[in-house]
UniProtKB/TrEMBL annotation:
Protein name (database record): Pyridoxamine 5'-phosphate oxidase
Taxonomic classification: Bacteria, Pseudomonadati, Pseudomonadota, Gammaproteobacteria, Alteromonadales
InterPro entries the record matches: Pyridox_Oxase, Pyridox_Oxase_N, Pyridoxamine_oxidase_dimer_C, Split_barrel_FMN-bd
Gene3D superfamilies attached to this UniProt entry: Electron Transport, Fmn-binding Protein, Chain A
Family statement: Belongs to the pyridoxamine 5'-phosphate oxidase family.
Length: 192
């Protein structure tokens, strides 16, 4: 049987190729907030392998705090130009420091500075405050942006289920569900 992670990689490659989108790898990550509501937002998909599906963020953001309480998450992607939807459920764990450092180094200096300046998910009285902070850092060179802030890293989601939907114009979408039980993936179909 085809491995669902292999399929994910093949679909992701197709999604990136000829994508009309600027943000070609955005996926929706859903967590559970402290009131029991789902909390969903887009992040940038960084890598997909048998070890996990990786995205990067602030570890002390709302999503980071939510994951520290309940690490069950969902990831959802829709790639309109090829008609593919992927839905993942799984458990998120923080990336080891070396891996977080590797992703940090892929960021531009501007993105690193912005990341240093922001306290993601915290209230902000006036958006100009952050513009001013970035400008001040650029002016006085007081920060070495290449050093990763300790509150920034990533999460690796180890999948428990992965559903692949192929959109059909007649609405008879093909839904293929892969579920992991005792280390073995099984495949079934779902009605659209
Ligand atoms: C296309 C797109 C990509 C994004 N990528 C990321 C990302 O990779 N990491 C991140 O922390 N936030 C990213 N964001 C911002 C998040 O959607 C969200 O606003 C932020 O992470 C704060 O979420 P939280 O307060 O629920 O933790 C992205 C937003 C969009 C629209």
């Amino acid at each position: 049987m085809e491995h669902p992670i292999q399929r994910f990689l093949i679909w992701w490659e197709r999604a990136i190729k000829n994508s009309p989108l600027k943000q070609k790898s955005a996926v929706c990550v859903s967590t559970i907030n402290n009131e029991g509501f789902p909390a969903a937002r887009f992040v940038d998909l960084k890598s997909v392998s048998n070890d996990g599906i990786v995205f990067c963020t602030y570890l002390d953001s709302a999503k980071g705090k939510e994951i520290s309480i309940c690490n069950k998450v969902a990831l959802t992607a829709w790639w309109d130009h090829i008609g593919y939807q992927i839905r993942v459920t799984g458990r998120a764990t923080p990336l080891p420091d070396e891996e977080a450092d590797r992703y940090w180094k892929t960021r531009t200096t501007d993105a690193q500075i912005t990341t240093h300046v922001c306290e993601q998910s915290q209230p902000l009285a006036n958006p100009n405050e952050l513009v001013d902070k970035v400008a001040a850092i650029n002016r006085d060179n007081s920060l070495n942006p290449s050093i990763r802030p300790i509150n920034w890293g990533g999460y690796s989601v180890v999948a428990h289920s992965i559903e692949f939907l192929t959109f059909k114009e007649d609405r008879l979408h093909l839904r293929e569900l892969f579920t992991l039980n005792d280390g073995v993936w099984t495949k079934s179909f779902l009605q659209p």
